[in-house]
């Protein structure tokens, strides 16, 4: 564990306090959304009377912009939007809600990347978190602070992970654990878990946080960690926004590589793919493949296939080599395999630690090549279907951004996304594959686009004291992300029906599954299907302690009224 001495802690804390002070004394320069100032309204007047500072808007333009989210499935308008210039503005808002006989709901919104209105505040107030990095003369740089000696970074809860990465890389450092999409906020992913292909080694992002600044539902501003206020620290991590608003996170850093060998290998069976994945993530067994990859994921290719997914390079990309018939060969392989292929996606990181010395750099590159040769020899992929590309470390981690920009250009980004994310025990993943990938998917082809991910993680890299829920019965569990986009008329209904079929299949087949980025229609669903008795009791106890009036994140539908 990295130890931050008192001097470092005081300096880093002072930078954040100074940034907030400057925000309050400098002339405010609102972002484009907040430029139009509307006449006062009774609700806004009430907020002012209750001591709420910061820019507040309650006009139709402002509320409409936060009424929907990335999912584009639900619409829920707030009464107003708060554009805070510093964390104290958020604390004042929560205190104002607490002071009312009927508290109004408050939800923190970062990039609005939720899928089912989880960050909505119907008839309440949405907090526009990016304003913390823009209003009152603030900037992204003033809300990001690196300690090279302490190997950590303090990041505002509103900061994007891509900016955290850029700032850390400027010092030759990097966080250890990521999400696949970096244009999300720190507070947003830490309120869920934050997973990707590095979680098998380092755990989710919530396992790599050293300290948090949190504003509880009672309006209290608290600095917490494993050493102080540990119950709040654990509650907030993976807490779905139910216990507090994250305004700062201290994240562990390590020396950064500079390059990545990005590898994709095609398989014709789920058994071969998952067997190889499990060998790769077993970092303690000492197998020939143990820990050879720094990043391990997988994809199911049942509709659009390898080429055409928004997570993939375009067909003309050199990633697929110089063969003009690669798409035809992949299609033929899929046909021979019964319409379903699997792809192991991984990366080997190298460079960076050698300090630029040619001899050392050569040894690092040689070691990377030796690892790659071992992978190509030992893994059970279909020979002739290996695609290897050398990219920058930054380019690999931010690779999904290219797909996003392509979809935006085609008008296919702001469409409904009825996503379904599940955690499954290792012992049932092949049963799931047979019933869903080779069953439900094949019977209900919709033509909708979007990736289907499947990859394993090690349970011992997760902390059961946090609020995150994950399978604890086995040492390895899988995540399955069915990340479809409804791009044509009728797709949304068909995809939602397919999601229900998948959940029904799991129930009937006795496959225990936990939803990640969860959605349930009511509290009973959360209690029975998600948490279970023991975890639910702890979750309720924490809610009573930190947000007893159920002010925070009612859009999750966990608590919609004050607790008795």
From TrEMBL:
Biological processes, Gene Ontology terms: cytokinin metabolic process
Cofactor names: FAD
Cited InterPro entries: Cytok_DH_C_sf, Cytokinin_DH_FAD/cytokin-bd, FAD-bd_PCMH, FAD-bd_PCMH-like_sf, FAD-bd_PCMH_sub1, FAD-bd_PCMH_sub2, FAD-linked_Oxase-like_C, FAD-linked_Oxidoreductases_BP
PROSITE patterns: FAD_PCMH (PS51387), OX2_COVAL_FAD (PS00862), PROKAR_LIPOPROTEIN (PS51257)
Catalyzed reactions per annotation: N(6)-dimethylallyladenine + A + H2O = 3-methyl-2-butenal + adenine + AH2
Keyword terms: FAD, Flavoprotein, Oxidoreductase, Signal
EC id: 1.5.99.12
Transmembrane portions of the chain: none
FAD-binding PCMH-type domain residues: 74-256
Molecular-function GO terms, alphabetical: cytokinin dehydrogenase activity; FAD binding
Signal peptide range in chain numbering: 1-27
Similarity annotation: Belongs to the oxygen-dependent FAD-linked oxidoreductase family.
Subunit structure: Monomer.
Protein name: cytokinin dehydrogenase
């Amino acid at each position: 564990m990295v130890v931050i001495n008192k001097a470092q802690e005081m300096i880093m804390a002072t930078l954040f306090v100074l940034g907030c002070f400057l925000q309050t004394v400098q002339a405010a320069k609102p972002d484009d959304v907040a430029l139009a100032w509307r006449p006062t309204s009774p609700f806004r007047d009430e907020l002012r009377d209750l001591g709420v500072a910061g820019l507040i808007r309650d006009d139709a333009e402002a509320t409409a912009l936060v009424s929907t989210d990335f999912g584009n499935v639900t619409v829920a308008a707030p009464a107003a939007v708060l554009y805070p210039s510093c964390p104290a503005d958020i604390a004042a808002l929560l205190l104002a809600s607490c002071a009312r006989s009927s508290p109004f709901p408050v939800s923190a919104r970062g990039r609005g990347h939720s899928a089912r209105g989880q960050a909505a505040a119907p008839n309440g107030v949405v907090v526009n978190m990016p304003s913390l990095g823009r209003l009152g003369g603030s900037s992204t740089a003033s809300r990001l602070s690196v300690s090279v000696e302490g190997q950590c970074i303090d990041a505002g809860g509103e900061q994007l992970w891509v900016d955290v990465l850029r700032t850390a890389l400027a010092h030759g450092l990097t966080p250890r654990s990521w999400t696949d999409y970096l244009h999300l906020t720190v507070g947003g992913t830490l309120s869920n878990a934050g997973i990707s292909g590095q979680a098998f080694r380092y755990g989710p992002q919530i396992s790599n946080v050293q300290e948090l600044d949190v504003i509880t539902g009672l309006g209290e501003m608290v600095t917490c960690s494993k050493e102080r206020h540990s119950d709040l620290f654990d509650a907030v991590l993976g807490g779905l926004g139910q216990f507090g608003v994250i305004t700062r996170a201290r994240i562990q850093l390590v020396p950064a590589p500079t390059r990545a060998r990005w590898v994709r290998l095609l398989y014709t069976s789920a058994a071969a793919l998952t067997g190889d994945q499990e060998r790769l993530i077993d970092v303690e067994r000492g197998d020939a493949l143990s820990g050879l990859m720094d990043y391990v994921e997988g994809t199911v290719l049942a509709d659009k296939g390898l080429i055409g997914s928004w997570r993939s390079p375009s067909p003309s990309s050199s990633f697929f080599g110089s063969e003009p018939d690669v798409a035809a060969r992949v299609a033929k392989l899929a046909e021979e395999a019964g319409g379903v292929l699997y792809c192991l996606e991984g990366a080997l990181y190298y460079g960076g630690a050698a300090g630029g010395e040619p001899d050392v750099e050569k040894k690092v590159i040689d070691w990377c090549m030796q690892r790659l040769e071992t992978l190509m020899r030992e893994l059970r992929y279909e020979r002739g279907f290996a695609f290897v590309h050398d990219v920058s470390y930054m380019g690999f981690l931010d690779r999904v951004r290219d797909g996003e920009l392509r979809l935006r250009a085609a008008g296919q980004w702001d469409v409904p996304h009825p996503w379904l994310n599940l955690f499954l025990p290792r012992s049932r993943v092949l049963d799931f594959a047979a019933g869903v990938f080779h069953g439900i998917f094949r019977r209900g082809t919709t033509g909708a686009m979007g990736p289907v991910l499947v990859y394993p993680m090690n349970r011992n890299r997760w902390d059961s004291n946090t609020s995150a829920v994950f399978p604890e019965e086995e040492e390895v569990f899988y995540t399955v992300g069915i990340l479809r986009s409804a791009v044509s008329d009728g797709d949304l209904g068909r995809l939602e029906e397919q999601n229900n079929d998948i959940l029904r299949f799991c129930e009937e087949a006795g496959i225990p599954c936990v939803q990640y980025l969860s959605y349930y229609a009511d509290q009973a669903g959360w209690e029975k299907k998600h948490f279970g008795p023991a975890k639910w009791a702890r979750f309720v106890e924490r809610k009573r302690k930190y947000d007893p009036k159920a002010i925070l994140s009612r859009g999750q539908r966990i608590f919609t009224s004050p607790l008795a």
